[in-house]
Design brief:
The structure is a homodimer of 197-residue chains. With 197 residues, chain A is α+β, with helices and mostly antiparallel strands. Chain A is 31% helix and 26% strand. In chain A, strand 2 and strand 3 form a beta hairpin.
């Protein structure tokens, strides 16, 4: 589906992962359905392997089985690394769900150092390709007088992605659906949410 | 603390429990901090025993250890039975946290049938006393043209509780913090939230 129009009440899925300890081999991933960065319509969840390579498939399954799928217009994720170095393939997630995917972070990502860190893991080359396939890093000022956020996107033009990010940055420069997903994932896995996505 | 004034941005903690299966002896309980039934400020969680009697202590601990505790003004819970027949003592929760507690449900509770169901469990008399100690059931119409909700309260006058319930019923006749806690608790324990609190 092509995203042409960004309505104020656009249904967005925000995704973030939970905390894990040294003894955990899996962690929680939470998706929050919000309308225009304001109202919560639902929550979904899945689990992914720490330092595994299953995050793309697990999120695609979670989205495609959801009763909210028909209403969803775009997926926002907190970066592309989940549960350690379980790297999300945003192009594949877009292809498997039919939805535009925008991966957002607060600081400009240091792609070179991420790629370098991957050499300590198995399937290095596969992970490296996923990181590079996420494409160029763009930036947008979502709120006046605050620093920009940085993003990579698949299935949506960067200029349209910028409108989505501005519209959903209702309380903070990060999109509210990502902030709420972060609150939930850390609140459930740690007992209390940490404040920073 | 006495609740005298109900500001539009009042910080409310909404609490609900998650799903559990026949093989589970514990389930998740989620607390969501919201401002005036609109913005989410944080998420906290704990676990309680299915058909146990620990829900009051677990929720009191969760609230008292929270960094949000100083800002909280009132606790809203989805009824008084959690995880089967783990009954919440709202008077004790009020005493242990110093916060007013309002327990809300959509249908008028049938106290007699709850008390009767308790006879199948251990510590029947203790559970029965907790159920009766929750006090009289009040009702309030929180939204025009919708049925009322029913509530019991501790540490707050029923007339003040009614104002809190009206102010936080921002999207549904049930308070939004309880609806969101329900979405999170069922979304995390079942993979997707069910729509009804």
């Amino acid at each position: 589906m092509k995203l042409r129009e960004v309505k104020p009440e656009i249904r967005v899925l925000g995704i973030d992962d939970g905390h894990y300890g040294p003894e955990d081999d899996r962690t929680l991933v939470v998706g929050v359905v919000m309308r225009g960065g304001q109202w919560i319509d639902g929550v979904m969840s899945t689990e992914v392997t720490v330092d595994g390579l299953d995050v793309t498939d697990r999120i695609a399954e979670m989205v495609n089985r959801s009763k909210h799928r028909p209403q969803l217009r775009v997926i926002l994720t907190d970066g592309i690394t989940f549960a350690g170095f379980n790297v999300l393939d945003i192009k594949k997630l877009h292809e498997e769900t039919g939805l535009p995917v925008i991966s957002v972070i607060k600081r400009r990502p240091d792609v070179a150092s991420v790629v370098s860190a991957l050499s300590n893991l198995d399937r290095t080359e596969e992970r490296r390709k996923i990181v590079l396939r996420a494409g160029p890093v763009h930036s947008v000022k979502t709120r006046r007088d605050e620093p920009p956020v940085y993003f990579q996107c698949a299935g949506v033009e960067p200029d349209v992605a910028k409108v989505v990010l501005k519209r959903t940055a209702t309380r903070h420069r990060l999109p509210e659906p990502i902030r709420v997903a972060h609150f939930i994932a850390t609140g459930v896995t740690k007992g209390e949410s940490s404040s920073d996505a």
